[in-house]
Amino acid sequence: MASDDLVLVTGATGFVGAAVARALQAEGFRLRLTARAGSDRRNLAGLAAEIVTADLAQPESLAPAVRGCRYVFHVAADYRLWVPNPAAMRKVNIDGSVALLKAAAAAGVERSVYTSSVAALGLTKDGTPADETTPVDPANLIGAYKRSKYDAEQAVRALAAAGQDIVIVNPSTPVGPGDVKPTPTGQMVLDAANGKMPAYVNTGLNIAHVDDVAAGHVLALRKGRPGEVYILGGEDLMLRDFLGLIASQTGRQPPKIALPIGPLMPVAWAMERLAELTGKPPLMTPEVLQMARKKMFFSPTKAVRMLGYAPRPAAVAVADALAWFSAEGMLT
Fold first, then answer.
1. How many domains does the chain fold into?
2. Is residue 18 in some structural domain?
3. 8 A C-beta contact, residue 109 and residue 63
4. What values do phi and psi take at 258, rounded to 5?
5. CA 36 to chain CA centroid, nearest Å
6. In b/e form, how buried is each residue of 107-135, taking b as 16+ CB within 10 angstroms?
């Protein structure tokens, strides 16, 4: 595994994909990065890479992208918590992923690392951290994104079971620098830092530094076993404590109002109906509130033990995210 091998990274214009590209560049790999026509390419700044136009919704664009590459990192995905057309998301996340990985096999790519999500994994009934072996309850696959990532991972596992060398990684909730969009979690960090989140719901999440997640991808390439799944997680925190962490680093008062989920449902339903009329994403949806009833806690122990993955505390991820948002003029 020579460090100057040509590596394709899909989704490098996005948050995690850009971090993966930076980690690979630091390791000396030669980069080829995909970008859709007209996409925001701010995250590609500073990367010495060949940029090719490709789109997971256009399978014919994928074979030229993988040609000549030794390795593929498939990080790209349609990640939205609300979509007016779930079929379009499924076309990208499922059909596009299978098409890309089949194109990689046909091109003689030696190994592919597929970026799934903890959204595709099971949750424990008692709220203790889940791992790669926790059974998946279909009732917990709430929302178009979760369902698409679960089905996509099952399709990728089938390709691996048929003999293709694919390692699967499941990031939890990444936080850190380079969140240009920002992602839904990055927007929450921004809102809390700007004093726009006076309340919270009683849920839990696993926070991972985006650069640790990126390092985990490189470790998966070097040390992962074909067909295996590795959670790239960080620190489990109740949402209250996560928002308190942001408040402590910005000199603000932490939110003190805990909102019950039940009474919020009619409000979320109305927001979703309005979004259908305007096309603008709602602040919350019934599905997001349903997800919040579960503590999304996960254990990265397998990746730590098998890959040498080394996640840092959530406080470091928050500090680096806030420093980046401040440098970008996004903090008030």
1. 1
2. yes
3. no
4. -95, 120
5. 18
6. bebebbbbbbbbbbbbbeeeeebbbbebe
The pLDDT value recorded for residue 292 is 67
CA angle 90, 218, 156 (to 5 degrees): 30
Q: Would you say residue 69 lies in a domain?
A: yes
Report pLDDT digits (tens) over 9-53.
999 999 999 999 999 999 999 999 999 988 889 999 989 999 999
Determine, yes or no, domain membership for 279. no
| pTM above threshold 0.85 | yes
Residue 281 has pLDDT above 90, yes or no: no
Q: Cα dihedral sign for 57, 61, 63, 67? A: negative
80, with CB counted inside 10 A (0-12, 13-18, 19+), is middle
Burial class (CB in 10 A: 0-12, 13-18, 19+), 87: exposed
**CATH of residue 67:** 3.40.50.720
pLDDT band at residue 247 under the 50/70/90 scheme: very high
Distance (Å, whole) CA 261 – CA 190:
23
